[in-house]
């Protein structure tokens, strides 16, 4: 899952980004509203953590612009303003959730997780596909009860496919959601990531849980 953290405080911005990355998210950061809006309009984010007191362009202005353009990202607003009027204004501008400063990172993480579930219309923390079980809260994948050791990127890939169960997921969509640095991308990066994941998650001799539609994308094999 891909998250944008738009926050002018370098300390808060980097600590939140570090915590989200450690939790398995693909994270980009912005220090001002103009860059945050540009990133939001040009990248496919699942959740945007948006401070209202941004330089160059304030968070409410960015939020209203995104909602006017029907941007589908869920937005968690961060602000030192915590009156009822402030919360109402943010929610009416299009925010999906509201977290006043100072905040505990664990609460922010839980709210991000809830917005991801809402975005993919799935309120469960556990996703199951045959013998494969994905614990989204613990960022853990098991097959037939045995835990499978995955890298953060491999976990992001299997969770993204699972959140889109029943849908074909294209290569560009995968690139947007599991790679935060274009330097990491090479011509067959997605194919390589899928191949490595299959080696870890599939049972030798059985059909792969990940179906390839050549020239189109990937999807998880539906249960029979």
Plain-language structure description:
The structure is a single chain. The protein contains eight helices and twelve strands. The strands form three sheets. A five-stranded parallel β-sheet has the order 2-1-3-4-5, with helices on both faces. The two termini are 27 Å apart. It is of the alpha/beta class. The protein is elongated, with a radius of gyration of 18 Å. It has helices at 10-22, 33-42, 59-68, 84-92, 105-119, 152-163, 171-178, 189-201; strands spanning 2-6, 26-30, 47-51, 74-79, 97-100, 126-129, 132-135, 140-143, 146-148, 169-170, 210-213, 217-220. The protein folds into two domains: 2-119, Rossmann fold, CATH 3.40.50; 126-220, Arc Repressor Mutant, subunit A, CATH 1.10.10. Strand 4, helix 4 (84-92) and strand 5 (97-100) form a beta-alpha-beta unit. Helix 2 runs parallel beside helix 3.
CATH class of the largest domain, anyone? Alpha Beta
The run of helices and strands is EHEHEHEHEHEEEEHEHHEE
The CATH superfamily of the largest domain is Response regulator
The whole-angstrom Rg is 18 Å
Number of domains: 2
Largest sheet: 5 strands, parallel
Class from secondary-structure proportions: alpha/beta
CATH architecture of the largest domain: 3-Layer(aba) Sandwich
Question: What's the mean pLDDT score?
Answer: 87
Task: Report the span from N to C terminus.
Answer: 27 Å
Number of helices: 8
Order of strands across the biggest sheet?
Answer: 2-1-3-4-5
Number of DSSP E strands: 12
The helix content is 40-55%
Q: What fraction of the residues are assigned to beta strands by DSSP?
A: 15-25%
